[in-house]
Write a structure and sequence with these properties.
The protein is α/β, with parallel strands linked by helices. The chain is built from 7 helices and 12 strands. The strands form 2 sheets. The protein has a 6-stranded mixed β-sheet, covered by helices on one side.
Length: 266
């Protein structure tokens, strides 16, 4: 495991983290929460925003943003383009760092540039406030889910990605809708507490190799502080869901006071 290090500039005083928003055109309740977060007053914002994967429910290629593809564009394409535009507007006010998840790993250099975001490797060490924080989406650590790990290894291969992105955009949209339907059927009625969690021994090994004490990640939808060993911990980000009761829209903030879990103000 190799984790590059990002050294925070000296003027940074607070940074925010989000993950697992799974934004999609059909879930306007969650989109509204996200837009509330983006539109916070300047005094409520951090010095930088880190998005640790699964910002989008799916991303099927950067050519979604190609203007030549916008004749009779689908609702999904218009939605994705609007989201990228909103990120670009925020990036003029603060740096945004993006680490891909299992749903948006095809978010490539053209989309990053359009959104004004800077790419992060998974994992990456953030050197901030005199401490090293290890950042990851978290899916690579869920080793008990053998089927998913085989799928992950396949789709992260450059050849697989090249072949997928060579398909017509409309075909990729159809495949994405089908995969979303299968995923929803697979998860229906399942208790999230029974989903595969991060392998603690591997997480500790990653932290040891990176000389960090805290791992910050998402993916598992088990928000909170999880104690490992020898003073090591995992700070797990919440997923976002606008139609839950109560709605979930938690973000993590690091500053001199420590780790805080916040929600965007109305």
């Amino acid at each position: 495991m190799h984790a590059p290090t990002l050294c925070a500039p000296a003027h940074w005083r607070r940074v925010d983290f989000v993950s697992d928003l799974h934004l999609q055109a059909g879930d306007q309740a969650t989109v509204a929460l996200w837009r509330r977060f983006l539109q916070r007053a300047p005094e409520q914002r951090a010095d930088a925003l880190f998005i640790l994967g699964d910002l989008f429910e799916v991303w099927i290629g950067d050519d979604l943003l190609d203007p030549t593809e916008w004749v009779d564009a689908s609702e999904d394409r218009r939605f994705w383009r609007a989201c990228v535009t909103e990120l670009q507007q925020l990036s003029r006010q603060m740096p945004i760092f993006f680490l891909p998840g299992n749903r948006d790993f095809l978010f490539g250099p053209l989309a990053l540039a359009a959104a004004g975001m800077q790419a992060l490797a998974d994992p990456t060490v953030l050197d901030f406030l005199g401490q090293r924080w290890l950042l990851s989406h978290g899916d690579a650590l869920c080793l008990a889910d053998a089927d998913y790990q085989r799928f992950r290894a396949q789709v992260r291969q450059p050849r697989w990605q090249q072949d997928f992105l060579a398909r017509p955009l409309a075909e990729r949209e159809h495949l994405a809708r089908e995969l979303r339907r299968q995923s929803q059927q697979h998860q229906h009625g399942r208790d999230p507490a029974l989903w595969a969690d991060v392998d603690a021994a591997t997480a500790c090994d990653w932290l040891r190799q990176s000389a960090a004490a805290v791992l910050i990640h998402g993916h598992t939808h088990r928000p909170g502080r999880h104690v490992l060993d020898l003073g090591r911990t995992r700070e797990v980000l919440s997923d976002w869901c606008g139609h839950a009761t109560p709605a979930r829209a938690e973000y993590l903030r690091l500053d001199a006071a420590g780790v805080q879990r916040l929600t965007p103000s109305p």
